[in-house]
Write a structure and sequence with these properties.
two-stranded antiparallel ribbon; mainly alpha; Arp2/3 complex 21 kDa subunit ARPC3; cell membrane; single chain; globular; membrane; transmembrane transporter activity
Length: about 250
């Protein structure tokens, strides 16, 4: 391959990997918050905050799969799992650090003047995140392997046509599994939720992801257009053929 194309290929994988890792890690960290949709839709449905940015991970996964194949997706997925583990180990270590007396003193009341223990709040939030890590990694691993595999199966079945079908189909199936596994492990096995609460939130999470996968289809086509222009027509075809054959990056 020409050196210029090799460089573009590496740069593309680097950028897509960066987007993937940052959003996956952010989703894990902010996923401890459960917020209500009632003010927006008038129904008492709830979502995890982390689910808001998972659609970015979906789209990035499909783009990586399109141009770098299943091996490209799994390589960055395994790296992301390692980085998530590292991040939570660091966070856990910080919850064990003794708080400074002045920090506790200047934050001893909230805005309404009520007693407030900022160190307890810090530990409560981030140690809850540690409970999520087992569920997150389990669901993330299963979901990514399933997504990458189904994407390639649909690609071969359609002979490389219908980008929307393989992208949306693989996402909808993998996230059906992910949505329930992560909450079941994190909040039922390791947490204090009832099974009904798990099913309720997981159901809402999944339908949000379902809608997001459909609505983001134009974004997927836009990304394809921009990448194809960046790489060049012939180079794009060559790279997609490699991806379809699961040739490594």
């Amino acid at each position: 391959m020409p050196n210029s194309f090799t460089h573009k290929k590496q740069q593309l994988y680097l950028v897509l990997s960066g987007i993937f890792i940052v959003n996956a890690l952010l989703a894990e960290i902010i996923g401890v918050k459960i917020f209500s949709l009632e003010p927006l839709i008038g129904r008492p449905d709830n979502l995890t905050a982390g689910v808001l940015i998972w659609p970015v991970v979906f789209v990035t996964t499909d783009i990586i799969n399109e141009y770098f194949g299943k091996e490209g997706v799994l390589r960055i997925s395994y790296l992301t799992v390692g980085l998530i583990l590292f991040a939570f180990l660091v966070i856990y270590a910080t919850t064990k650090l003794p708080p400074a007396a002045f920090w506790l003193d200047v934050n001893k009341t909230d805005d309404a003047g009520r007693p407030f223990n900022i160190d307890y709040a810090y530990q409560s939030i981030f140690r809850q995140g540690l409970g999520i890590i087992a569920g997150s990694i389990t669901a993330f691993g299963i979901g990514q392997v399933l997504d990458a595999t189904v994407f390639q199966l649909l690609r071969r079945a359609t002979k490389g046509r219908y980008v929307w079908l393989r992208a949306t189909g693989s996402t909808l199936l993998s996230q059906l599994v992910d949505s329930f596994v992560v909450l079941y492990v994190a909040f039922y096995l390791f947490g204090n939720w009832s099974l009904d609460q798990v099913i309720s939130v997981a159901n809402t999470n999944y339908w949000y992801k379902f809608a997001a996968a459909i609505l983001l289809t134009p974004v997927l086509y836009l990304a394809h257009y921009l990448i194809d222009r960046y790489l060049g027509q012939e180079e794009t075809v060559e790279l997609q053929q490699e991806a379809a054959a699961d040739v490594s990056v």
